[in-house]
């Protein structure tokens, strides 16, 4: 007998402590505008301890609250619109849709090219696991049937035969009903991408605003303040088109008290229409976005403490509760939530700058920064994460968010606080400059006539995101010395894209073909061939070295990931989407390079036009790591002995990310200089 799955959560009701709605009990202690029913008041809030922090299990359907004096119905969520189809909006909306088949999720963006890509086989960003999510949520899925027993374990009574095949004839149901076949019904697509911004906003119960909020580059606060142009533009569209009662969610990272501004804009355009504004910052990291979203450590929801504010928070929480344990959904006041995001990134950046400052001390003293990091990281109060020294942090957010915090402090007339955080950025720049200077110093203070290969262009491993990549600054510094060639290779980025970006950041004239000396390669060995020095600028595993045997052949350490088959699924409701995904991954892991759809759930992917630029790019470049059909396939670790044979003496390697085993490299004849370790 078939068991169907895909539970949809009941609509909860929220208990609200009216006393806590404002500190003074007046209903609003602020001059900030409120909606007619007072859904947003920016008054001081009660201490967090008094605020309903964790939401109860779905079945209870009520917010925890010590004293409950009124009930506000939690609005049902059937339609979500996410504005911004970027690194955050795309994956976040995809996971929300994947986990909530009963909710229609539409991602809107004004960038037609981006939307076209999301609707094609070539999503505009690469993230491990994204493809599997899109294949179900965007494309819908077929009915599938599978036995409810681990395929690696033989069926009791059978001769050790294990059945990893999935077919419609998969055995009979056992007595207790738990091991029989499970039928997963077909799923309709519920994730859509479109440029119809206003229309989709007007249909949504929840509008997630996930547009870019970079640093201002001109005018007041240039270089520090957040550029709110995109956010403001979207807010105006939302204000004009959102339906009454809609919940507006700040997903973008925004300055503290942005919710005030959103509320004012809404009140300006639609004075008598109730809206609720929430802060729900995103903590995902590039390269692990899907994993971060699926196994999230916390969801932060900031709301006003009014009945409507808390009800809106509960509505948003119910969306996440489809897969996130209630204990990980934290609610705070809206400004704490906005500030917490800036502080989270600033503290992470600060840790990196702290260890990089120590790297400089190590280079001058003979201590080794990895050893220092290991020693201090063993203290649970410090912890081992984010202590990897290198050439500094990159990425679209750390720098801008630290600067935004510093700007906030300046605006609040707290220059000491601002200086403290600005020093984090200063130390980051120092790390890069020191590394580039070290390369030049080791190469006799001149790069003229020399070829240098830069390995890694993305700002971190396993992503094709190159925003604020330290590699760009390193290339710029190298070019100042007039080298013969700067070769650039990245295992995850498409060469054409890298060329385009380098041209944009450093000027088209630096590129080969335009009279410049920067050559972008799609092959690491070509990039390294004839090089005087190699610089490792991104911590890709591909660049790590592994012991070499007497035969000169690289001995790869094969660490087989143990992916546990999650069956048997217990309970009468059938597996959740997360459990199905775990099964999908377990079955895939059983066979190397095996079936991309072992459950037989996937529908056909969208087809591309004959003239699809991305298909052509894939054909001409190999383009591993680009496009849904081609997730980042590791090109394997570099064969360092082969590279040694191709390089010029004395085989300089500058390890800016501490990925190399120096002893092994030196035995092979390389001359290695590493960040955080004394050089020669
Ligand atoms: N990239 C990351 O890993 C993380 C980013 N964030 C924050 O999330 C926000 C978004 O960042 P990303 O996704 O990286 O930015 P992004 O630049 O990749 O995407 C933003 C998208 O918004 C669209 N957009 C801009 N103005 C628009 C308008 N008026 N109407 C419709 N669409 C519009 C752009 O076309 C673009 O596709 C930022 O505030 C960022 O600080 C937060 C956590 C992680
Ligand atoms: O707001 C954001 O955009 C996101 O910023 C970071 O995520 P991300 O920038 O994608 O990547 P990280 O893993 O944090 O790495 C950032 C940079 O720091 C560098 N790094 C990281 C860790 C470390 O120990 N040392 C180090 O140099 C990385 O190489 C990379 O260049 C945060 O980790 C996310 O929580 C946050 O949501």
Give the N-to-C terminal Cα separation. Answer: 72 Å
CATH topology of the domain at 79-120 and 193-341: Rossmann fold
Instruction: Give the fraction of residues assigned to helices.
Output: 25-40%
Strand order of the largest sheet: 7-4-3-8-9-10
- Which structural category fits the helices and strands? alpha/beta
| Portion in strands | 5-15%
Low-confidence stretches: 1-69, 153-176, 548-554, 624-631
What is the CATH superfamily classification of the domain at 79-120 and 193-341? NAD(P)-binding Rossmann-like Domain
Radius of gyration: 27 Å
The CATH class of the domain at 79-120 and 193-341? Alpha Beta
User: How many helical stretches?
Assistant: 19
Mean pLDDT: 85
For the biggest sheet, the summary is: 6 strands, parallel
Task: Please provide the count of β strands.
Answer: 18
Bound molecules: 1,4-dihydronicotinamide adenine dinucleotide, uridine-5'-diphosphate-glucuronic acid
CATH-level-2 architecture of the domain at 79-120 and 193-341: 3-Layer(aba) Sandwich
Morphology call: globular
Organism: Cercophora scortea
Protein name: UDP-glucose 6-dehydrogenase
Binding site for substrate: 341, 386-390, 394, 460
Domain UDP-glucose/GDP-mannose dehydrogenase C-terminal: 453-572
